User: What shape does this take?
Amino acid sequence: MENGTLDSNVGRGEMKTWNILVTGSSGLIGSEAVEYFDRQGHKVVGVDNNMRRVFFGPPGDTLWNLERLKSATRQFTPVSLDIRDRDGVLALFRENRFDLVIHCAAQPSHDKAADIAFLDFEVNALGTVNLLEGARQHCRDAAFIFMSTNKVYGDAPNEKPLRETATRYDYSDPADYEGIDETCRIDRTMHSLFGASKVAADIYAQEYGRYFGMPVGIFRGGCLTGPSHSGVELHGFLSYLLKVALSGKTYTVFGYKGKQVRDNIHSFDVVRAFDEFARNPRLGEVYNLGGGRANSVSMLEAIARIEALTGRKINWTYSEQARKGDHICYISNLAKLKSHYPGWSLTHSLDLILQEMVAAEREHRQKVGG
Ligand SMILES: NC(=O)c1ccc[n+]([C@@H]2O[C@H](COP(=O)([O-])OP(=O)(O)OC[C@H]3O[C@@H](n4cnc5c(N)ncnc54)[C@H](O)[C@@H]3O)[C@@H](O)[C@H]2O)c1
Assistant: This one.
């Protein structure tokens, strides 16, 4: 164990009703967290100002998901608050005694950040400090979960020796088989501005755990996915690929011959990890969280699997220009998470994820007449 467990929180799992704050509650992970904890009978306050629409335009609009949540939940209170609004955030913490904070609000796009440097930093870094400070001032024993990203490693994972197969790049050293672990360095690499603002937030969150002794968990996500994603070209790889597949539009693959590899995890399994942490939190601990090798797929493989599932050819073009700072092969090593939380495991295989997302996208298209 790197950091101690929080003795004062032993037995936290026995608490009857938690008062929970979820930020980014209309987004993919936030909405899954709202539904999951509401189903368990907890009270959830959700903060989201639909800023995904500001970042990505109408296709990024999350209001459909908010409406869905309102009818699917029992004790959910949505609040349209911007996490950059420091006074508003501190007032929210003053007025509520939260037992658990799940922070998922973000500018989430690697590529978009370069066009909106100030906004990206203000949301991802300053917004996170507002929330951490709110927790420190008003509920310092509450478990605090920060959704970070594998982009904090920048392109350092590309230094691993790779081999090329017919459909993907893969690690050539057997020692790397299970993927990238938390010892990968986070500096002296190229991150994108998004990766850099998330590094700032990730380190701040660790510091609130280590310096102030607060129960803060940092989860560095691989590709997080599920039917509640408002997928757009610049964020939400599988969600957007499926939208393109079913609409007949054209998908562009950027660089690495389409053999770049991502590991995909369903939003439900992400939130199950949060639940495990919340019941037995540790101080400032960092975990990689993705689909691992079992749920890894290259672009070429994803296209073939979706074509087989939908029975439709995907129109795609290839651009030689790889995205700056992009990972060639990224698989999350889940060993640390599994050893600290043996009750956690993946429940959604990649096939199951794809089937569920195809069904949801078809239903959505029927509703909107697409
Ligand atoms: N989806 C992925 O593949 C992935 C991978 C790694 C890490 N992550 C991280 O996981 C977290 C959740 O990602 P997601 O896929 O659910 O993103 P998402 O865009 O679906 O959800 C984020 C939500 O936050 C809201 N939001 C943004 N700025 C806000 C602000 N200033 N105030 C209030 N609300 C705001 C948005 O409107 C959106 O609904 C993010 O921190 C993201 O960086 C995501």
